[in-house]
């Protein structure tokens, strides 16, 4: 069962990153594509909690960092999605019960993730993506991620819930 869970989660991340870097650039708005990997990490955070989501965030972010045509210092998206996974996992009890709470969680996660990515570029003096340009795309990124939330988040959450092992109650 653990192998099946790992295979499904790996497939989710791989598909999200592949769509994000191969297909969605054709649907870019002002140079911004939706961050499907972020939505997978948020779904994992809401279902499995902060520890699992932070680990998945690291792997998802690293996949984005290394997938061509990456033009920034590797590790920036990994850092951003670790922070997103941990923070989104901390609010999981509220967001699991309410669609509005889940949307607010995605909006906050998108804002935080894009901001951490932009600010890490400032700290690392990454010339590939100017910080001013990166900060200007934050509102577009948040809106794009929120727009995809109803289509992606429920599906990912339902899939992750089915993979969640049944907890036995000790008497």
UniProtKB/TrEMBL annotation:
The chain crosses the membrane at residues 6-29, 70-88, 100-124, 136-157. GO terms for biological process: regulation of cell shape. It comes from the Bacteria. Signal peptide: none annotated. It is found in: Cell membrane. One of its GO terms (cellular component) is plasma membrane. The keyword Glycoprotein does not apply. Keywords: Cell membrane, Cell shape, Membrane, Transmembrane, Transmembrane helix. It is a multi-pass membrane protein. Belongs to the MreD family. This is Rod shape-determining protein MreD. It comes from uncultured Nocardioidaceae bacterium.
């Amino acid at each position: 069962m653990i192998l099946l869970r790992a295979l499904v989660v790996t497939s989710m991340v791989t598909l999200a990153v592949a769509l994000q870097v191969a297909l969605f650039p054709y649907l870019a708005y002002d140079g911004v594509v939706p961050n499907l990997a972020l939505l997978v990490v948020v779904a994992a955070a809401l279902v499995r909690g902060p520890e699992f989501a932070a680990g998945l965030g690291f792997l998802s972010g690293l996949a984005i960092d290394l997938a061509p045509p990456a033009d920034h210092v590797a590790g920036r998206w990994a850092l951003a999605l670790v922070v997103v996974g941990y923070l989104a996992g901390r609010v999981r009890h509220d967001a699991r019960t309410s669609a509005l709470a889940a949307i607010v969680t995605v909006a906050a996660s998108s804002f935080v993730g894009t901001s951490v990515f932009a600010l890490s570029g400032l700290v690392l003096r990454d010339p590939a993506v100017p910080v001013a340009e990166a900060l200007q795309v934050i509102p577009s990124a948040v809106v794009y991620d929120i727009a995809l939330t109803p289509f992606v988040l429920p599906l990912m959450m339902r899939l992750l819930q089915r993979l969640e092992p049944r907890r036995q109650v000790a008497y």
